[in-house]
């Protein structure tokens, strides 16, 4: 094993350490600007920087957060005290990560489906991010469920890109977070979500193997298995956990860990599902890599008002603590 593989394995284990999870604060400029605008904040490079500073300076953040995913803009910015974001979070004992895909773009030949781009020039970009302090990276592939979707073409294209990204990351000494997201959008059943997610994961596993990616040096970031957000059903946390673990069981034991995305679930539902997941014995740790389920309450509580800065941080702290407690349940159960 090379020293880079050993390093990747150590970082992946650190990211999924017991009782800790990942904060996804890597919204693209367009997404972040529109979320700030909805919260009443004028979007600009500085308001995005201020908002990310609010997040990373939340008291006690490192008690429940092992890593934070940033976007390129934030990694090039500094806190009010002049420290670059990567340096500031490392000083807290939190690993900085970087979203390296350049977004899900319409896929020629597959109307209504996307291919996540960003492979061109990736090794040079990864080397730069490693040099400025990043420890891990993230790439998100997006799959939408409809009667005829996702197509096999979309699954094959995106699985191949995810695996090529993962291999490039490990060569650069960065841990790849591999995120195949089957969207909650739609009126599909929980069974259909399970079938689609299982097919996507099978293709991703095959491509990771073809690209010689070391599974002990990656973190898988999947969706939980739920019905669509337009479905009249509402599965219980136990049903979600059962269905999710059943799909995940196809992953080998050497996988370093699983850190779920929240996918637009209300924060309390995402946390309840994470709690229920801990009741299952699995060979890999199960934790969170939530974006909206952690930051939406903080953004709403702050709203760009400096007198409510502490309210934003309190809201983030409360949600981090709840999810870290959920992720810690598993160890408590095992030692009981
Ligand atoms: C934070 O949002 C991430 C970036 O999204 P865009 O590039 O589309 O702006 C996103 O990849 C996020 O990390 C995952 O979707 C998980 O976030 P949620 O909110 O689903 O937990």
TrEMBL record:
Belongs to the class I fructose-bisphosphate aldolase family. It is an enzyme of class 4 (lyase). GO terms for molecular function: fructose-bisphosphate aldolase activity. Its EC number is 4.1.2.13. Keywords: Glycolysis, Lyase. This is fructose-bisphosphate aldolase. GO terms for biological process: glycolytic process. The keyword Lyase applies. Pathway: Carbohydrate degradation; glycolysis; D-glyceraldehyde 3-phosphate and glycerone phosphate from D-glucose: step 4/4. Signal peptide: none annotated. Transmembrane segments: none annotated. The keyword Lyase applies. It comes from Mycolicibacterium gadium (Mycobacterium gadium). It holds the Pfam family Glycolytic.
